[in-house]
From TrEMBL:
Membrane topology: Multi-pass membrane protein
InterPro entries the record matches: 2C_sensor_his_kinase (IPR050980), HATPase_C_sf (IPR036890), HATPase_dom (IPR003594), His_kinase_dom (IPR005467), HisK_dim/P_dom (IPR003661), HisK_dim/P_sf (IPR036097), RegB (IPR047770), Sig_transdc_His_kin-like_C (IPR004358)
EC code: 2.7.13.3
The protein, known as: histidine kinase
First-level EC class: transferase
Coiled-coil intervals: none
Length: 447
């Protein structure tokens, strides 16, 4: 086995680890644009203004119009100041977002307080800033906001202001009804906040994992192109180096008898010949971008995948159920090579002594089955396999297959190439895990 092949598994691990580390070294704080919050607040200003005008002018219900106008004006003034002080592309940090959402919450609570408290049918709107915070901000900055919202909801129950109603009637809620409304708002607030946080968190994790997938694939492509870049550099440097060599020979012939220059000229010529030898070795390396290397038979692709993993003391058996004369010729795809290599690497890591690859192809389909004789997947892991950042493992025994970001990356890359993956445990008395990867043959051949 060549040194290049032997280092394949180590290189794959290094690429994945370094790329993931680089991705996660970036700040994970979720920030949203100030302009987004400003537009939402203008919508709130418009809605509150229309509601107050409709109650005062259309329904002719008495309400503290001056106080309501002051609170709505305060929100509009804050919006104008934010628009003037910060550019539209400014992104809020968690503390700034908490401060602004707390202001919005207090403004809404104050407006509800002077218009009937919990009796006001718009009281559930106090949940809006909380939902926005849990959907866009870290949990540690959202919990204080929901506690403030519950405190404001409690204060609304003690509002001395009556609900704007017909002048000759007074509409007041009984304490039991107020308690029921408080419980409804509090429970809705907690449920909506939890739901928004879970959905947002899962979407963020998925986006992070996909970004890490793109980064790993880009690193893999760069590694596969290094030989071609080296050969291209050697070709470009060949002409000037040949000129230097010719000039060195002429100088040696001209100044060979001069003791002051002879040693320097001989050193110049010897170093130019050394550079030429180095460039010749570089040009002998295979270039992944060369046309004759862009397509390879299925058997060669599988051998390229498993070759780096034969040195770890686990027997790797290759079973071919089809004739090589009719095997497909595939486009070289860094995603397929990386994905299959990652699955084989995981099988080797968790196998006891043996990993078997079964390759089958017919006119319509190409199937690769990877099996190991390890402990297999536990039922809870099997139902969630392929999720990003899933790190739960059986504490008593290591389970077959990768269970974190590496497996997610491999699964994503293979599915992007058109493959369908099935993860399962081996049946019967044979313990271990089985991964079935299947393509439509035209899709694999056309890349």
């Amino acid at each position: 086995m060549s040194g290049r092949q032997a280092s394949g598994a180590t290189t794959r691990k290094t690429v994945e680890t370094s790329a993931t580390r680089e991705f996660h070294s970036r700040p994970l704080t979720r920030r949203f644009r100030l302009q987004t919050l400003v537009r939402l607040r203008w919508l709130a200003v418009a809605g509150q203004t229309l509601t107050v005008l409709a109650v005062d002018l259309l329904l002719a219900f008495p309400l503290p119009l001056l106080e309501a106008a002051f609170l709505i004006g305060a929100l509009a003034l804050a919006n104008v100041m934010l628009s003037l002080w910060f550019p539209p592309t400014h992104r809020l940090g968690p503390k700034s977002a908490l401060a602004l959402l707390s202001f919005d919450l207090l403004q809404m609570a104050a407006l509800l307080f002077i218009t009937g408290g919990l009796a006001n049918p718009f009281a559930p709107l106090i949940c809006v800033p909380v939902i926005i915070s849990f959907a866009s901000q870290p949990l540690r900055h959202s919990i204080p906001l929901i506690l403030l919202a519950i405190a404001c909801t409690t204060a609304l129950a003690f509002s001395p202001y009556p609900l704007p109603w017909y002048p000759d009637q007074t509409l007041r809620l009984q304490p039991v009804m107020q308690l029921g409304i408080w419980c409804a708002i509090a429970s809705m607030m907690c449920f909506a906040a939890f739901y928004a946080y879970r959905v947002s968190n899962e979407a963020t994790l998925l986006a992070d994992a996909l970004a890490a997938t793109e980064l790993v694939l880009e690193r893999e492509k760069h590694l596969s192109q290094l030989d071609g870049l080296a050969a291209a550099a050697a070709h470009e440097l060949g002409t000037p180096l040949a000129t230097i060599s010719v000039v060195a020979k002429e100088m040696e012939r001209e100044f060979g008898d001069d003791e002051r220059l002879r040693d320097d000229v001989q050193l110049l010529r010897s170093q130019s010949e050394r550079c030429r030898d180095i460039l010749q070795r570089l040009t002998s390396l295979s270039a992944a971008s060369e046309e004759h290397m862009r397509r390879l038979p299925l058997s060669s692709m599988i051998e390229e995948v498993i070759a780096p993993h034969r040195q770890f003391g686990i027997e790797i058996s290759l079973v071919e159920l089809g004739e090589r004369a009719t095997e497909p010729v595939c486009m070289r795809n860094a995603g397929i090579l990386y994905g299959l290599g990652n699955l084989v690497e995981n099988a080797v890591d968790y196998a006891r002594s043996r990993v078997t690859l079964t390759v089958e192809h017919d006119r319509d389909h190409v199937t690769v089955v990877i099996e190991d004789d390890g402990a297999g997947y536990s039922p809870d892991i099997l139902s969630r396999i392929g999720e990003p950042y899933m790190t739960k493992r059986n504490k008593e025994v290591e389970r077959a297959g990768g269970l974190g970001l590496g497996l997610f990356i491999a699964k994503t890359l293979l599915e992007r190439s058109g493959a369908r993956l099935v993860f399962e445990n081996r049946s019967g008395n044979e313990a271990g895990a089985r991964i079935r990867v299947e393509w439509l043959r035209p899709m694999l051949e056309e890349g």
